[in-house]
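Input (structure):
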């Protein structure tokens, strides 16, 4: 089998290295190492598209095995609860089967289980999600194994999500060896936390994925290009790292195209970088920025385009003047876009974009219509 590529610029894949995410990775370790029921056992990961939320869940899944946890990973949807139970039974039975000799207590006919972690027909039909999840946790705890549930693309106003959160809260209160790690867009997570039955999640550990330090990108690129058999001049390396603007997805895109456009033993030149940037920016527009602005209202977009006229930070007074809005309207749209995780307010009366390169995309988008 061929060696996996160093750069993997596609959603749903785990990159070779989670560059610049040491603090976030440490939070995952603390989640597994903390005592059952502690707030560290519930983690909410937020970030815009391309910031590496799914990659963090994949890392948590890999980490689980070494920490003595059975992991199940799924996305939020109508089949959420069934997917969790089915996944835990499958993964748990595989872990049990790997232990030799056969484990006492996981035999056929155990109460509620036909074998291992497989529910009897009676248990499957008679018990609800919380009871069955608790049964699985108890059986695994007999062999010093915990359970971690990983949910991607969380969403509000979801009855399965409410049942999962309620079950976790009650089982964690009972001391079950259980952890819950969820990921979603900032606006979605914000709405989730406002639901009356889910307010306990406000106490969960928050991981907010933002831009990566340029020095970390530069260091990784230097190692990655060397391992791929490419050489690169220091200035070109610095330019490539700077061009990512700390955006994890752009890091993968630029690296992927720089390797694709050169052969083993060749040097990555400034001309190669120029070509790679054209290709990478086209992918970024299509896969990140277009889906990001599509759900926004025309006024939301006009507000962002007014911000994009500035280099860096924008003053809300200038935005109000450009749009001819009342102060109250500006504050309303300001809050909407902050809640959506698209802009932040670094200081009173100022706004700036959260996502690198979004301002440039909006300027190009606005220009194409004139």
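Output (sequence):
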């Amino acid at each position: 089998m061929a060696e996996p590529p160093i750069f993997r610029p596609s959603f749903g894949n785990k990159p070779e290295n989670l560059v610049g995410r040491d603090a976030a990775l440490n939070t995952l370790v603390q989640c597994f190492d903390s005592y059952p029921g502690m707030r560290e056992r519930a983690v909410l990961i937020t970030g815009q598209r391309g910031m590496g939320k799914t990659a963090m869940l994949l890392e948590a899944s890999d980490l689980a095995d070494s920490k003595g946890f059975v992991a199940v990973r799924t996305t939020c949807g109508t089949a959420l609860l069934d997917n969790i139970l089915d996944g835990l039974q499958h993964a748990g039975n595989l872990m049990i089967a790997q232990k030799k000799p056969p484990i006492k207590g996981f035999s056929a006919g155990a109460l509620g289980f036909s074998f291992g972690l497989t529910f009897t027909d009676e248990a499957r039909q008679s018990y609800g999600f919380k009871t069955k999840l608790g049964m699985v946790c108890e059986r695994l705890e007999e062999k010093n194994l915990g359970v971690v549930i990983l949910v991607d693309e969380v969403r509000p106003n979801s009855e399965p999500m409410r049942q999962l959160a309620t079950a976790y809260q009650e089982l964690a209160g009972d001391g079950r060896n259980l952890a819950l790690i969820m990921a979603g867009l900032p606006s979605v997570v914000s709405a989730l936390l406002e639901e009356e039955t889910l307010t306990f999640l406000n106490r969960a550990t928050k991981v907010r994925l933002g831009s990566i330090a340029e020095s970390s990108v530069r260091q990784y690129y230097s190692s990655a290009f060397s391992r791929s058999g490419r050489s690169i001049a220091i200035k070109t390396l610095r330019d490539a790292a700077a061009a990512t603007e700390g955006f994890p997805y752009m890091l993968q895109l630029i690296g992927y195209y720089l390797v694709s456009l050169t052969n083993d033993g060749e040097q990555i030149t400034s001309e190669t970088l120029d070509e790679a940037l054209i290709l990478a920016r086209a992918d970024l527009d299509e896969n990140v920025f277009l889906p990001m602005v599509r759900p926004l209202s025309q006024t939301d977009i006009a507000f962002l385009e007014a911000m994009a006229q500035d280099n860096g930070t924008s003053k809300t007074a200038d935005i109000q003047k450009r749009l001819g809005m009342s102060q109250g309207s500006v504050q309303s749209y300001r809050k909407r876009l902050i809640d959506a995780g698209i802009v932040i307010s670094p200081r009173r009366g100022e706004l700036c974009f959260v996502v690198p390169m979004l301002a440039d995309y909006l300027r190009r988008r606005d220009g194409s219509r004139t």
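Notes: The longest helix spans residues 270-293. The chain has three domains: 22-208, 214-292, 296-368.
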